[in-house]
């Protein structure tokens, strides 16, 4: 059995973080799938999908780390090279287990979209749940 939904959102631009955990949980619960896998995929090459604690100080630290690893400077690719390079480092998808009809993640784990492009964007996040009912 396969169930799929698209979560649409507007971001504020570079390094904006949006917690989509509740949306992903809802998709899983509405899917009717009891055991399987949930794939959360960000459509686009300048965003990241992360699974971690949604803590302001931790996210500030993450943003600083990203800036250090891929700083704002001139690259060969025009305009938003750093956005693409950051996305390569972070990934734009995450796979999560589904057990007893629910997303099986830790207490402090949240699914978050991290905008890496240099400007605000409209984003589509595809949530696909595959398994058995």
Question: Can you characterise this structure?
Answer:
- The radius of gyration is 16 Å and the shape is elongated.
- The protein has one domain (12-125): Jelly Rolls (Sandwich).
- With 133 residues, it is of the alpha+beta class.
- The longest helix is centred in the middle third of the chain and has 14 residues, at 56-69.
- The N and C termini lie close together (7 Å).
- It has three helices and eight strands.
Number of helices: 3
Number of strands: 8
Instruction: Give the neighbour order of strands across the main sheet.
Output: 1-8-3-5-6
Topology-level CATH name: Jelly Rolls
Q: State the helicity in percent bands.
A: 25-40%
Structural class: alpha+beta
Radius of gyration, rounded? 16 Å
Biggest sheet overview: 5 strands, antiparallel
Q: Helix-strand pattern, N to C?
A: EEHEEHHEEEE
Mean of pLDDT: 97
Give the CA-based shape.
elongated
Can you summarize this structure?
By secondary structure, this protein is of the alpha+beta class. It has a single domain (12-125), classed as Jelly Rolls. Helices cover 26% and strands 40% of the residues.
Secondary structure elements and their pairing?
Elements: E1 2-10, E2 17-19, H1 21-31, E3 35-43, E4 47-52, H2 56-69, H3 81-90, E5 93-99, E6 102-103, E7 110-115, E8 122-132
Antiparallel strand pairs: 1-8, 2-7, 3-5, 3-8, 4-7, 5-6
